[in-house]
Each structure stands twice: as structure tokens, then as C-alpha cells.
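Whiteboard transcription, Tuesday session. T.W. wrote the C-alpha cells on the left side:
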């Protein structure tokens, strides 16, 4: 079978990255010596030349959750509402990292995923900064290589005849942004493609040449389900992060202020009871359009 996309994904994942991010990925993997399989770097910091003062984004891929956590409620939480998210600091840099098993990472990049969270992110550029061994590296690459075809296959039935690669990308990202609680300004989904149209054209055309996965019989219904489930999952993950992520409510405020241009200040009582504090922010954020 022809495979035009896999070499592009492999080259992008294995391209050079900021040495400080590489060192941070290695240190993160070292925290989970019995479980770590791969560490991926993604998000807006991937495009930044100066990482000081920024919050880096990583995915830590583990063999399985018991190996990562032992017999812990964190194992159950990661299974029920993946991923778990934690803060991390290394050599003056700060980051958050999400934990997924190899099996969940592959599933959530594929068309069988019941939410957009993973494949919407890994259809965008990322770097594989650390792998335990070559099989772990190849499994991570294969999982990421599913993300773009998944997005494009679900976007195509909604495209109303716009079959060129860039149009499919823009439609797909617009739909995914409506399937999560997002803090970015309106139009952010389109600017992702406009920032590097050559990359998205090459990846899109390669995926189309390989043949996309089958689309669901009723794409509009499928997207409504993804959007409803995605927003509910965003709330559940927010609630879970109030227990797993130290300073999570301050990070939430920082991210919303950065992307939506707001000036939210967290009160002491909201830090003391972060779950209640986060919930009380939601009506204000919806009314102001800071999240959608």
C-alpha cells in the first residue's frame, strides 16, 4: 500500500528541537523509569525561540497506568478520563504534561476516538523528544500518523464540495475548536493553517493520496456528539485537574488571559477551593466569550 504521509510525519517528529526542551523531556521520562515509553513536545511553544516564562506542553506516553502510578486512584482516573495532567519544572523551565498509555494514545489519535482532544493536537506539528527504544519510537510515530487522516476524514463530509487540502484543514480545525472549551479568540482555528500553509498542504495532499479512513454515515450527527462529549470532558478534566495539578486554577487563568485577552485575577478563596473556584469562573467566561 502506498504511504505518502508516514515519511512526512517521521521527519517532522524527529526534527531538531530546542535543547532545553529535549533535556526537559529526558528529565520527565526519568520520573517514570518503569513506565515511560515516549515524550512528545507540542503546542505553541514549539514555535518559540525563547522558552523562558512560557508553559511548555508535553505528552508522556507510558506502557500502562499501573506501571506509572502503582495501585493508586491516579490509575483509575487516567483510565476513566484520560489524560491525567501534572505540572513539571526543570532547569528554570515550567511545563505541564499529560499522561497516556501507548494503547490509549494510539486509540485517541484514530477515527474510533470518542473525542477530538488528542488527534486535533497531533494533526498539528509536534516533536518526539525521547523514546525508550526503537519499538516505542515506531509506535509513537504510527499513532501520530493517524491524527491528520482522522481530522481530514471527519472534515470532508462537512466541506460542502471544498475538497482541497487547505480547506479541509480549516474546516476540521474549526469543528474541533467547537468540540472543546477553548480560551482562544475566534478565528484561531483558521490561523493555525495560515501560519504554515505549505506544511498543511503537503500533509493534507499526502493523506488524501494515501486514502482517508471511512467517514461516519451521518457526519453532522457524529460532530454533534463529539462536540457535546468534548465540552463535558473538558469540565470533567478541569475537575480532575483540581486534584492532580498544583496551581491548576492559576494556570487556567494564565492561559485564558494569554489567549483571550482577558484580565482574570484569582482570589485566595479560589486557590483554597480550586474546583469550586474554577466552576465559578465558567459563567463569566462564557458570557464574555473567553471560552466557547
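and on the right, the sequence the group agreed on:
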Amino acid at each position: 500500500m502506498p504511504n505518502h504521509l508516514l515519511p512526512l510525519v517521521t521527519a517532522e517528529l524527529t526534527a531538531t528541537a530546542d535543547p532545553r526542551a529535549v533535556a526537559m523531556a529526558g528529565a520527565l521520562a526519568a520520573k517514570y523509569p518503569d513506565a515511560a515509553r515516549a515524550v512528545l513536545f507540542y503546542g505553541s511553544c514549539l514555535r518559540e525561540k525563547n522558552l523562558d516564562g512560557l508553559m511548555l506542553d508535553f505528552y508522556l506516553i507510558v506502557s500502562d497506568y499501573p506501571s506509572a502510578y502503582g495501585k493508586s486512584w491516579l490509575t483509575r482516573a487516567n483510565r476513566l478520563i484520560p489524560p491525567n495532567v501534572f505540572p513539571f519544572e526543570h532547569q528554570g523551565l515550567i511545563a505541564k504534561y499529560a499522561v497516556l498509555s501507548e494503547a490509549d494514545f494510539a486509540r485517541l489519535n484514530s477515527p474510533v476516538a470518542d473525542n477530538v482532544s488528542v488527534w486535533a493536537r497531533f494533526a498539528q506539528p509536534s516533536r518526539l523528544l525521547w523514546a525508550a527504544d526503537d519499538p516505542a519510537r515506531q509506535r509513537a510515530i504510527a499513532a501520530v500518523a493517524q491524527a491528520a487522516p482522522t481530522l481530514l476524514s471527519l472534515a470532508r463530509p462537512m466541506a460542502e464540495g471544498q475538497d482541497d487540502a487547505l480547506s479541509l484543514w480549516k474546516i476540521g480545525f474549526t469543528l474541533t475548536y467547537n468540540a472543546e472549551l477553548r480560551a482562544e479568540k475566534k478565528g484561531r482555528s483558521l490561523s493555525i493553517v495560515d501560519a504554515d500553509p505549505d506544511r498543511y498542504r503537503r500533509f493534507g495532499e499526502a493523506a488524501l493520496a494515501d486514502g482517508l479512513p471511512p467517514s461516519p454515515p451521518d457526519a453532522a450527527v457524529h460532530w454533534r456528539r463529539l462536540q457535546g462529549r468534548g465540552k463535558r470532558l473538558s469540565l470533567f478534566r478541569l475537575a480532575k485537574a483540581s486534584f492532580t495539578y498544583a496551581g491548576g486554577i492559576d494556570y487556567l487563568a494564565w492561559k485564558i488571559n494569554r489567549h483571550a485577552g482577558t484580565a482574570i485575577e484569582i482570589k485566595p478563596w479560589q486557590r483554597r477551593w480550586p474546583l469550586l473556584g474554577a466552576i465559578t469562573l465558567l459563567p463569566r467566561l462564557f458570557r464574555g466569550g473567553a471560552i466557547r
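Someone added at the bottom: The longest helix spans residues 219-244.
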